[in-house]
Design brief:
CATH topology of the largest domain: Cytochrome Bc1 Complex, Chain D, domain 2
Number of helices: 13
Helix content: 25-40%
Low-confidence stretches: 6-15
Number of strands: 2
Structural class: mainly alpha
Mean pLDDT: 93
Largest sheet: 2 strands, antiparallel
Radius of gyration: 23 Å
CATH superfamily of the largest domain: Cytochrome c-like domain
Strand content: under 5%
């Protein structure tokens, strides 16, 4: 009788736990693109590919699946890690297939709906095409897009995911790319302490306020608005390296674009190190030191870095640098960095 009672107790506990597990909220049910009220209009036409729960889940599965690479070892998430604003943390340049080194630091992925060029050199002009380059790059995933589609068609799970997202099991290039875009479109970062300050829901410390004022006076010409980038391409006076990366010139073939790279957003900059297109700086202090004393007079150096006295850079004191960094850390969006909808650890395809 005692044994039967124990068994019944176990069954009740197990049933209760299972019921709670079954009642766990669907974290994807609320997937819908919503423009923050203080953000400008998107560059991406959301109406053409509005994120849905099924499309988002498919895009997420693809984003974290090594099936996109030649040998299954590299996924988008390998070089774009959520906890670090979807960058390749602590890697100056990204490591791809067969541990080959790329030429550039993996850029952060956030607020991409407001971009009309992608990559450090702006070589891609639409989010839907952004994923093609890493798949086919020989030092990243080294795979043919046609091979990826064939692997997906023969996969046990993906045909159903495509049907859920698009109405039938047909797997095409367009659907593949649009699913990835749906996942990336939802990567909206707008809930930092600075955002809360703008909304009147948080305060900034004395150092942070001083940093904000300094930032507006000395940095915001390039790092403009709520996106903290004007999306332009500029030469910020970095010394050329042995890699001989000419930047925007590679795309436009204009010598006036040599050594120009896209102005990155500074949102979540505290966690997206290392910095610059080649990851040469590992701390924010090093970045500001560069602008204070390290700017080189390259042929296409941005005019904003040319001072009236014939020298180059931005005048900064040690205290000013401390305050600017204090402000930059208010741009960290913990909600975005920890949003479980983007986590690879609760993925649709294992």
């Amino acid at each position: 009788m005692k044994c039967l009672s124990s068994i019944l107790t176990f069954v009740l506990i197990f049933s209760s736990c299972k019921k709670k597990e079954e009642q766990k909220p669907d974290i994807y049910a609320s997937i819908k693109f919503e423009k923050p009220t203080n953000f400008p209009d998107t560059k991406y036409n959301i109406a053409d590919n509005s994120p849905t729960p099924a499309g988002f889940k498919l895009g997420k599965a693809l984003f974290y699946d090594g099936i996109l690479s030649r040998d299954g070892s590299i996924s988008c998430g390998t070089c774009h890690q959520q906890s670090f604003a979807f960058t390749h943390h602590e890697h100056d340049v990204s490591h791809g297939i067969d541990d080959k080194l790329g030429q550039r630091n993996a850029p952060a992925l956030q607020n991409l709906a407001w971009y009309n060029t992608f990559g450090w050199d702006g070589g891609v002009n639409h989010l839907d095409f952004f994923s093609v380059q890493p798949v086919q790059n020989p030092v990243e995933m080294d795979e043919k897009l046609s091979n990826v589609l064939e692997k997906l068609r023969n996969h046990a799970t993906y045909p159903k995911l495509f049907k859920d997202a698009f109405g039938d099991e047909e797997i095409t290039t367009d659907r593949f790319l649009k699913a990835l875009s749906q996942f990336m479109l939802m990567m909206v970062s707008n809930n930092s302490r600075y955002d809360k300050y703008l909304a009147g829901k948080a305060t900034l410390s004395d150092s942070e306020m001083k940093g904000l004022q300094l930032f507006e006076n000395k940095c915001s010409s390039c790092h403009q608005g709520v996106l903290f980038t004007d999306l332009s391409f500029r030469d910020n006076g970095l010394s050329p390296t042995a890699r001989q990366d000419v930047g925007r010139e590679k795309i436009t073939l204009l010598t006036t674009d040599k050594y120009k790279f896209k102005v990155p957003s500074l949102r979540n900059i505290e966690f997206s190190r290392p910095y610059m297109h080649d990851g040469r700086f590992s701390t924010l202090e090093q970045v500001l030191n560069h602008y204070q004393t390290g700017v080189k007079n390259n042929p296409n150096l941005d005019p904003l870095l040319k001072k009236p006295n014939g020298t180059f850079g931005i005048d900064l004191t040690e205290e000013e640098k401390i305050n600017i960094i204090a402000f930059l850390k208010t741009l960290t969006d913990e909600t975005f960095l920890k949003d479980e909808r983007f986590s690879e650890f609760n993925n649709t395809v294992k």
